[in-house]
Amino acid sequence: MGRVALWVAVGAAVALLLLTSATAGVVSSVFGGGGAGGGAAPISASGWARPVVGTAGSGFRTADRPGHDGVDIMAPKGTVIRAASDGVVVRVRCNVGGESWEPTGAPMPCDSDGYPGLGGCGWYADIRHAGDIVSRYCHMVRQPTVTVGQTVIAGQPIGRVGSSGNSSGPHLHYEIHEGGNNAVDPVPFMRQRGVVL
Ligand SMILES: [Zn+2]
């Protein structure tokens, strides 16, 4: 009802524009993605968005950390983490010290901050996107707010920044996998899709 009233108010020309440019990315950009207070990330023309607003930390597979399969984005604990693109949640787990569990509803080891050397992604989620691409979001402060099988759109909140698992402080560890389990550097991957991390 509200949307109908709005469309009447803004006039047929705008309504037609919205209808004729009907992709999820365009529509969610027009309506701002619904992010209250946290500054919803703009969605690029190719349908991708920054997963979190923050500053660059460790890079992808650096000389010091050749096994670091993602990039670290430093942000305060509690900062909203958003789906980088439209997709389906395919994994939600707590991963510490070489063990991994699905959420049980009871308190779990990932509810506490971890530390370097503990190992693991902490609370994390994986989202599968078109083209056999999977994005991963690690070290959340609490259980992700999405569940396996849930459809999400670019920019949709999925959890909050924390320091669970193998982590020295609050940040998002962000991975991109292409064609199965092949981790690629998220920085050029995102840049090619119109997003600067
Ligand atoms: Zn990392």
UniProtKB/TrEMBL annotation:
InterPro entries: Cell_wall_metabolism_enzyme (IPR050570), Dup_hybrid_motif (IPR011055), M23ase_b-sheet_dom (IPR016047)
Signal peptide annotation: 1-24
Residue stretches making up the M23ase beta-sheet core domain: 67-186
Keywords: Signal
MF-aspect GO terms: metalloendopeptidase activity
Identification of the protein by name: M23 family metallopeptidase
Record organism: Verrucosispora sioxanthis
